[in-house]
Amino acid sequence: xxxxxxxxxxxSPQSHSPSLPNHSSELTQRxxxxxxxxxxxxxxxxxxxSSSEAFAARMKMIRHAEVSLDVQxxxxxxxxxxxxxxxxxxxxxxxxxxxxxxxxxxTSDGNDYQIAILAAHPNIAIHVFNPLHLGRSxxxxxxxxxxxxxxxxxxxxxxxxxxxxxxxAIVGGRNLGDExxxxxxxxxxxxxDLLSAGPVAEQLANSFNQYWNHSLSVPIRQxxxxxxxxxxxxxxxxxxxxxxxxxxxMETPRYQRLMLDLQEPLLGQWLEExxxxxGAALWDHPDKIEASGIPDDHLLLTTQLQPSxxxxxxxxxxxxxxxxPTADGVSFLSRHAEEGVTIRILTNSLEAxxxxxxxxxxxxxxxxxxxxxxxxxxxxxxxxxxxxxNITGESESSLHSKAVVIDQRKVFLGSLNLDPRxxxxxxxxxxxxxxxxxxxxxxxxxxxxTSPTLSYEVRLVEHEGGKRMIWIAEDEGQxxxxxxxxxxxxxxxxxxxxxVIGLERML
Length: 507
What we know:
- Mean pLDDT is 89; it is low at 1-13 and 384-395.
- α5 links the parallel β3 (98-104) and β4 (124-129).
- This protein has 2 domains: 36-273, Endonuclease Chain A (Endonuclease, Chain A, 2-Layer Sandwich); 284-506, Endonuclease Chain A (Endonuclease, Chain A, 2-Layer Sandwich), CATH 3.30.870.10.
- It is of the alpha+beta class.
- The chain has helices at 2-7, 26-35, 51-64, 80-94, 112-116, 139-148, 150-153, 199-212, 230-250, 253-259, 266-273, 301-310, 326-338, 356-362, 366-372, 420-425, 436-449, 489-500; strands at 42-48, 68-73, 98-104, 124-129, 161-164, 168-172, 187-190, 193-197, 217-219, 275-283, 315-320, 342-348, 375-379, 382-383, 396-399, 402-406, 410-414, 429-434, 455-463, 466-475, 478-482.
- The strands form 2 sheets. The protein has an 18-stranded mixed beta sheet, sandwiched between helices. Strands 7-15-14 form a 3-stranded mixed beta sheet, with no helix packed on it.
- GO terms for molecular function: phosphatidyltransferase activity.
- Residues 153-180, 395-422 form the PLD phosphodiesterase domain.
- Pfam families: PLDc_2.
- This is Phospholipase D family protein.
């Protein structure tokens, strides 16, 4: 254990890797031609609320890239969607596109060699961010290593971003895995992404470069005794092709659903239909991970977002899969609510969340928020629904979206949850847009998500001389009023335990 603690250190500095010139890219030229017709500084945006659209947008971006593809994710899970995307990345690299993949180190747990096989391609480079430097070989030594260096290892790169030719980008809540595109057989996630073109895409490309060139970004080959060979890459490529052909031949519903939009020339149509507005990419500085204790304000994404939150006049809508407001957040929201601002919050219910311990950090604040006039909605566990906010599929769904709508004029979309982990410990990225059209669209989707068939409305009512909370829902046209919070015993125990042992600041 002492050896593990002593040997976890800084990575050696990496050589600088800038954005590549992209003036020859047809995609860039097309975007620049449209940008030239818009007011100076405007960027183009399209909300990707449909999982099929979100997947198709990524595939189309990769297929149209000619110069560079920058891919940055917190989680990458194996599955149909991931193998299809990896196959397209390999095709892009074959065309001469430079592909850089930056993954949080937790994604590579025990899979360094398998992931590094892709980097056997001369045009693909793979880095891991904030890696554990010793004891990577198995679960036990990894756990010990992270425990002994907890001040650094509990901080993760939570960013989700893909950029093509520094001209087109997707940022939002989705990681990579079948559950994020609603084709998993177990639990799927309802999410939001944003397609961005023009100046904001260039800013997001700059954010990627800042992370890629940081000292915590380490080539994955550094952790291998010997690098994978091109023969192993060829074998992996054949396995992907065979897997996708088998799925196609079987015509499985999930394959048809995932690949449905790929036959249409969507990207060109989407570029013509973008909403153009002032916008800015916001991200945490990667130095946030190395901070001793609470990071300085200048490193935080939320410092950039705060002025827009403070300026709210009439209404604020918050969507956060994991919502832990803390005392400071309750004070901020309550103050605005008492001043007449309508505040709606949509988060997961105890029965729907995939992380019950986080619910334990949220639940103690509900009564204070309700007392102040804040409206609380908790997404129900949804079996086999089909709605415009994309709670669909063969399995159950859990909320994974992250968004803020201010006065139906400004909207922030990205990877940021409204909890201490996102604000203080993990790094995040997102886009703030001044667009009544886009803000209204997100607001409308939120209102649909808060309907009683999809969500519980939590209320505070008089009861025996005091007050208690109730959960209001609707099934088959009949209102239901629950006096006990919905959720199983194991979930209740996890939520209770996180409160008892004081995990709030880690959630």
